[in-house]
Design brief:
- The protein is an alpha+beta fold.
- Helix content is 40%, strand content 26%.
- It contains 7 helices and 7 strands.
- It has a 5-stranded mixed beta sheet with strand order 5-2-3-6-7. It has a two-stranded antiparallel ribbon with strand order 1-4.
- Strand 2 and strand 3 form a beta hairpin.
- Helix 1 packs across helix 2 and helix 4 crosses helix 5.
- The longest helix has 16 residues.
- Bound molecules: guanosine-5'-triphosphate and zinc ion.
- Guanosine-5'-triphosphate binds next to helix 5 and helix 6.
- One of its GO terms (molecular function) is GTP binding.
- Keywords: GTP-binding, Hydrolase, Metal-binding, Nucleotide-binding, One-carbon metabolism, Zinc.
- Homopolymer.
Length: 185
């Protein structure tokens, strides 16, 4: 559970740690602001993908569904810096689909936590498999990590691409190719 009081105390320490005067006028409200901001950035800590994926609609056709270019913002668990980009989700239904917005909501549930990109990709795929029961899921994330751009190795523009395949996508190059073909359209 998000504890705003703890966050406020922590931010005060952090400000002192970098040599700031936490009581100067410009910083007085900063711990409070950050506590409120963290409630938003880490809202996924208090949510479950299940809440979004249990309501389904019956379909007769089990053709691939692709929702692409879902913008997401997450935070790298190593440096607490943002990584952000696009998520692309494809799945092969098994007689039922979810509302399109629920795919983006599932991304949000897991992105709004401290993450590794590979883990985030896998968690989205696993949740879709578990709660929607499709024949297969493919999740691809493309993101820029600020810990790679504004510090350390400093390589702005570098993109990290991760993929998680589940179900029929694991052993069907044909389906995987169709995904990449649909991505280009
Ligand atoms: N696999 C993976 N690595 C990540 C992710 N986000 C950040 N990293 C990497 O985590 C690593 C942490 O490496 P460390 O050597 O422990 O920390 P560091 O000294 O800050 O590393 P540098 O970034 O190389 O300066 C770095 O190589 C980051 O690029 C991610 O989502 N996935
Ligand atoms: Zn990092």
């Amino acid at each position: 559970m998000i504890d705003e009081e703890k966050i406020k105390q922590g931010i005060r320490f952090l400000l002192e740690g970098i040599g700031e005067d936490a009581d100067r006028e410009g910083l007085l409200e900063t711990p409070d602001r950050i506590a409120r901001m963290y409630r938003e950035l880490y809202a996924g800590m208090e949510e479950s993908a299940k809440d979004h994926l249990l309501k389904t609609f019956h379909v007769d056709s089990n053709e691939m569904v692709l929702e692409k270019d879902i913008t997401f913002y997450s935070t790298c668990e190593h440096h607490l810096l943002p990584f952000y980009g696009k998520a692309h989700i494809a799945y092969i239904p098994d007689g039922k689909v979810v509302g399109l917005s629920k795919l983006a909501r599932t991304v949000e549930v897991f992105a709004r936590r401290l993450q590794l990109q590979e883990q985030l990709t896998g968690q989205i795929a696993d949740a879709l498999m578990q709660y929607m029961n499709p024949k297969g899921v493919l999740v691809m994330l493309e993101a820029e990590h600020m810990c790679m751009t504004m510090r350390g190795i400093k390589k702005p523009g570098s993109q990290t691409v991760t993929i998680a395949r589940r179900g029929v996508f694991l052993d069907s190059p044909v389906l995987e190719n169709r995904f990449f073909h649909m991505m280009e359209r």
